[in-house]
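pasting for the record
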Amino acid sequence: MSDLLNMDALELSRLIAARKVTAVELMRATLSRINAVNGAVNAIVSLRDREALMGEARLADAMAPVGWLHGIPFAVKDLVAVRGVRSTSGSPLFANLVPKADDGLARRLRAAGAIIIGKTNVPAFGLGSHSSNPIFGVTKTPYGLDRTAGGSSGGAGAALAARIVSVADGSDMMGSLRNPAAWNNVYGFRPTTGIVPTDAGENVFQHQLSTNGPMARSVADMEALLTTLTDGGYRGGANPKSAPRIGWLADWGGAYPMETGVLDLAESAIATMTDLGWKVEPVAPPVAADVLWESWTALRSFAVMLNLGSHWRGPATRAILNPQALWEVEQGFAQTGDRVQRAAEIRLDWLRRLEDMFTRYDALMLPSTQCWPFPSDWDWPRTIGDTEMDTYHRWMECVVPASLAGAPALAIPAGFGAAGLPGGVQLIGPRGGDAALMALGRVWHDATGWPQVRPPVI
């Protein structure tokens, strides 16, 4: 494997700008890597024509750099419309869709100089943290080729871990970049909702439950990409506090079932944080988990219904929707005005309680996932320990507190369990506290360097 593929995106950017590395060299290495490993991990889908990509790389070498991603291969999450590239959203409904225009995210990537090589795999419509769909199949973590890479940004996480790409975009409604970051031993960042611009949709109800965000093998790369995704609106470079105060929420007072070893891994991360001078202390959850779940599921299903309801109404298209989409849409149609209002009131109360907690803590911490990467032929875990999961997404409940609040959350790798599979923890900050969380992440990365532990496929 080319040494170029182990480099972070910012390092590649500097080398290309200094003419010490060419875009052609990097593209050739990237395509060779895809040929070698993508059959096993299935991270990249809708790969563009090789000669077209090599031609764009030659053009990049002939030009002055136009941005920090100049000449760097980039695969865009398959929930994003990319001009001239098959963009399926993981659903047979859009199996042959080739957009004529870019979504805003893709436009910003091109403006920064990225060469878009294809897409990263997702579950249909991004629903469920398991990147499997009937068009492209399942994406597997390079750390266990019989295990899921998570989702919905599973293709992005696996591509980073497999050294196919150096930096990637993800999105996060219900842990969709935090879960795959943990299961692929990389970083993921859910920014404060609203700082990454969204494209105008057809619905008058513009919720703030989901957001695009960056993923990478280093925090510095994530900050650079977040600046691009926000069209320059994010200002990073904050200085980390020397002794940050971290509130450890563990399993939310026993409400979140955890697979054996998940909390042990988090405790080992706490030990490292303590060695760094961070002040980590247990904190009791201020709101009952079932109350947050009530609010979250009502608002989420209502939002999904508004997005996919038109497909549900047509018998032909409804027959193509996957079970997760059908469940969400039907739950959304069942909502009443009173239930949505109650969900919104719970959310407001949670925001007030969080605001109070952040007067005492710089960040709150939870595991990024409640279980280890599960077998890739499962649809989702039906139990965690002795606890039965009553919905397709209940096993992801630990990501809800940040999502419901629209708060920034940094998923950091924390090492490996007894079976050699990776896991991580999430640091949650106050709304608008994105740069401060990234500063903590830089300290963590310098001290641990977990993504440098390469997966067996390398």
